Amino acid sequence: MDAPFIALRLQAVWVDARWAAHVVQTGTVLVSVGYRLAPEHPYPTPIEDCVDAIRWVHAHAQEYDWDLASIWLSGFSVGGNMVFAAAMMLHNGGLEGVNLAAIFSFYPLLDRTLSREDKYRMNPIAAEKVSTPKSWDKLFVDCYLRSNPAVDLSAKYLSPGLALDEVLREALPTRITIMTCGWDALLEEGEVFRKRLVAPGQNVGGRIVEEAAHTFDRVPSRKPSTQMDKMYSDALVQLKEKVR
């Protein structure tokens, strides 16, 4: 049986093709989830769409000869947030028989209670390397949350990095890889979360990609990127070990 690998995508499909090329080389089927986007479809709709996609894979596994024991999730940036949120939402839904074997999260946004200034103080070099204006942060948040003042930014589906240890142990798979970037404002929260997840019975991997800014692998380029290829290959070590 083939193992379905569910990729939560926010960027254009051609960007995900680079990651997909590495995934399919392991003999794995990649299912790309085009979840509905804000502001037309604000939180929590995108996460709910991701959960529905996981349920769809589970329901059609026999039809496509997929291995239900090996369902993997991957996501980048906000998608790196949503793989954790979707796993917790799926667990809360009580769907029996769904086995999430692993999560691959790249430079995830894990704590929405921190401002950009807070994150720059924790990693000052990120302020020098950022390529998006500060005003975009508010725009993205307003679109995703529809400027709802009642939303708790510390809620587990918005800030998975703040979820209770008990929730994480029960909802997340035992294999987790988190890749962070050295020049990223999200570096600290990613590293803190990875350390939180290390526990008996857990296989937690990943590393810091040095001298790399947020979404460095998403930049349009015809030139091959050794740094990007190395990050993808390192992230997939756990998957390769399982498939073989």
Task: Give the number of domains.
Answer: 1
Task: Return the CATH architecture.
Answer: 3-Layer(aba) Sandwich
What characteristic shape results from the CA principal axes? globular
In percent, how much strand structure appears in the residues?
Answer: 5-15%
CATH superfamily: Alpha/Beta hydrolase fold, catalytic domain
Count every beta strand, where a strand is a DSSP E run of 2 or more residues: 7
GO molecular function: hydrolase activity
Domain Alpha/beta hydrolase fold-3: 17-216
Organism: Friedmanniomyces endolithicus
Protein name: Alpha/beta hydrolase fold-3 domain-containing protein
Describe this structure in words.
The chain is of the alpha/beta class and 244 residues long. It is built from 10 helices and 7 strands. The protein has helices spanning 13-24, 45-64, 78-93, 116-122, 125-129, 135-145, 165-171, 187-197, 226-235, 237-243; strands spanning 4-8, 29-33, 71-76, 100-106, 175-181, 203-205, 208-209. Strands 1, 2, 3, 4, 5, 6 and 7 form a 7-stranded parallel sheet that branches. Helix 1 (13-24) links the parallel strand 1 (4-8) and strand 2. Helix 2 (45-64) crosses helix 3 (78-93) and helix 3 packs across helix 7 (165-171).
Short description:
The chain is α/β, with parallel strands linked by helices and 244 residues long.
